[in-house]
Amino acid sequence: MRTVSSFPTPVQRDTKGWAYCPICTHIVEAQVVVSGKRIATKPGQKCPRCSSSLEPASVVRYETAA
After folding, report:
1. CB 30, CB 22: distance < 8 Å
2. How many domains is the chain partitioned into structurally?
3. Distance between CA 15 and CA 4 in Å, rounded?
4. Which domain holds residue 24?
5. Residue 62 in contact with residue 16, Cβ under 8 Å?
6. pLDDT tens, position by position, for the chain (66 residues)?
7. Is residue 63 part of a domain?
8. Whole-model pTM?
């Protein structure tokens, strides 16, 4: 029987992406963290248009190598 600690942790990588800002309702460029199937904006970022936090933003698109 495997324990929880024996499962491999997914590798996190940062990439460029676009996120939907819920405050100003625009799609803005942001740093995106990809960890397995989970995609989220990098913590601590601010929207370039309205200066609100992008932590609750939805990721719309991100770049990956082909």
Report:
1. no
2. 1
3. 28
4. 10-41
5. yes
6. 556 667 777 888 899 999 999 999 999 999 999 988 899 999 999 999 999 999 999 999 988 776
7. no
8. 0.78
